[in-house]
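[Q] Does anyone have a clean structure-token version of this?
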Amino acid sequence: MLLNKDFLERGLSSEEVAEAQKKYGPNKLPEAKKETLLQQFIDQFKSFLIIVLIAAAVISAFFGELIDTLAIIAVVLLNAILGVTQQRRAEAALEAVKKLANPTTKVIRDGKLQVIDSEEVTVGDLVVLEAGDKVSCDGIILEERSLYLDESTLTGESVSVKKDAVDPSSDKPTEKNMVFMGTAVTKGRAKVLVTAIGAETELGKIATKIREVKKEKTPLERQLDTLGRLLGVLFLIVSAVVFAMGVFLQGASVTDMLLTAISLAVAAIPEGLPAVVTIVLALGVADMAERNAVVRNLPAVETLGAVTHICTDKTGTLTQNRMTLVGAWFSDKYVEEEQVSQQALEEELLRAMILCNDATNSAGDPTEIALISFLDEGLVEDVRNKLPRVHEIPFTSETKRMTTVHQVDGRFLVVSKGAIEVILSLCNSELLDGEVKPLPKERKRLILQQSEELASQGLRILGFAQKVIEGSLPKEDSEIEKDLTFLGFVAMKDPLRPEVKDAVDKCREAGIRPIMITGDHPVTAYAIARELDFPEGKVITSAELATMSDEELQQTVQDISIFARINPLDKLRIVEALQKRDEVVAMTGDGVNDAPALKKADIGVSMGKSGTEVAKEASDMVLMDDNFATLVDAVFEGRTIYENMRKFIVYLLSCNVGEVLIMFTAILLGFPPPLIPLQLLWLNLVTDSFPALALGMEPGEPHLMRAKPRGHKEPILTRYHYGIIAVQSIAITAATLIGFVIGLNRVGSVEEARTIAYMVLVLSELIRAFSARSFEGYVFKMGLFSNRFLAYSTLIGIALMLVTVYVPPIAAVFKNVPPTSTEFAYIIVLALVPFTISEIAKIFRKNEMGL
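[A] Here you go.
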């Protein structure tokens, strides 16, 4: 197969692929063993609080309280089922996102170049590698051109390694002739025969030994764990005080007060917070993926809401990446779009546009397609067949040029294309009306002046040059590219994406500063920026950056909105300069050399269409449509998710603090406990699960993109949020205790009074969830039932409460007595008090915030 030239053009057939895939399986690394449903269910009982609850059931059984024992066990089981359901739902959402972010590989099959999911690569495939690709298999190099690989994932060595094609006469290839899964192409291209996939690769063998990978918690989860522990300790202390006061001040039964204290601790401590946070993050990430923003790790969602600067590429991100040839300059004349044709262009310039080009009329890089799309396909094929390519120096972001070498009659034709100033710097002559003439500095300056006038109209300029080498080809690329003859340049237009202008305006309104970083000419970049109403300011180039110290850049970066002719490695300096000013930076990129800046940025954003696999691997998020507007939408979604988490955390804590205050205050005032243990545990299930999750799925509020970004060091809950918790928990406490006292005064029955308190507490927490949908927005303006999941959750909660009151066998277990119609009216009025206070408080909060 190594010597089969037909295979290098054809690759495997569809039948051969199907047979190989059946034999070797998918190209996947071994994964950590997933927990079974039973294991996940058992894990729910490892929580300290659940252990406390089980202890309460044991104590109840010991003292002969069989009904309480069974009820507590039922609650524990329901809690476990809910926990497993949430965990599996979160896993499903993350798995869906993971599939969207799957890496791709280029293969030749049935004689066609195809882009497939890397999982579908199989042994025997013919893989095509180019700069920026992540290698998805082990294989033998059959053909290569200037191939260099970063093998640091396997060797730890950061220097790129030169690779060579295998010698056809060799029995066994060496490492020099092999590529390995997990490595990255930094330069050149190659055709590779796949010899191993998945667990059989070198990387797969390592992965097999390290299957169990500990899942790291996100910063938010760690913050919530800390908050949960602090509240847990506080509530346990309060529960102990309630127990002591009940026993020693009121002479209550030790058993009753012990169960009450334990139940209060379990109901009050927000043990469900991490689970709800994970599922809300996971569902938010899945929703973002449907909108073309694939988040590769959950912490990125937390950071999105804090972004202050978006450093963005121009081509394909702000523009459509749909290049059109609008003019050509050669022999001191400029031919405009309507006159550009096969006949109008000089033969040498036309030939250079065809040869120094990897595209066909319909496939390839948009810039290269634009250079030949107006030509006859037969002409393109004929020129390339007559002048076969024997060597190439690939385009890189540093050199800003591409050079190809072609054999013709025992000589070598060298053709270069690239940035106009770069191409001119390599030339010492020019072609004028078919004659080669010297190219002095003054003449170069005039040509640059011509190109800059066109660039100022937002056009992209690409220069072309050539030379003929007699005899042998020099070994050094620098020798090949020197002393060229300038042929002319072409002007191309890449129109703005229609939605980008609005997205840039949204950025400004949200306090986010967009910065354009492009490899294009400064004048072109400025013209595009002007169309987008970017802030006026100096345009900085890589050459100017090189003269600036890091301290100088840090001082001036805040006033610069456009960086042009930028080397990708300079992106890292720009990110660092902004971060030293305490800014939170999102950086877009698509090339190999963008990886350091993508990793360093607070949010690294790679391109799904044009991005290399290396860039995707280094990023936190992938834009599947390469669109700046999608990134801005993702920032809004990130803010929404973070704000929603704040909403349900504030809601849960105000409920839990309220429950503690109710029990503590009642006993302090000499009343019996207003709620029995089972009522506490049940309402904890009803109000802490689905309503909290529903708040996490609230649609984003428009004002979120009119607010300044939150500080990246700002805690999840601020003084503002603690103020809301205090007001709401006091309102819940007052309403419930008033209901309890009314019940005691009306009938003198503790059980009836407790039923009223229980119903007021459950209803007030469920109804107040509607007000918790926004910290500042009024519910009736938002639409009372616009969050359907919350409406359904509330109805289910009310139904469950009514079952425990009006279904005799269950009511007996909960020691509930159905209220009279008058008492029910009191319950409804009191249950509306926390909601009403919450809505009134928004008036003062909005005035304070100037909304």
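[Q] Thanks! Anything notable?
[A] The chain has a mean pLDDT of 84.
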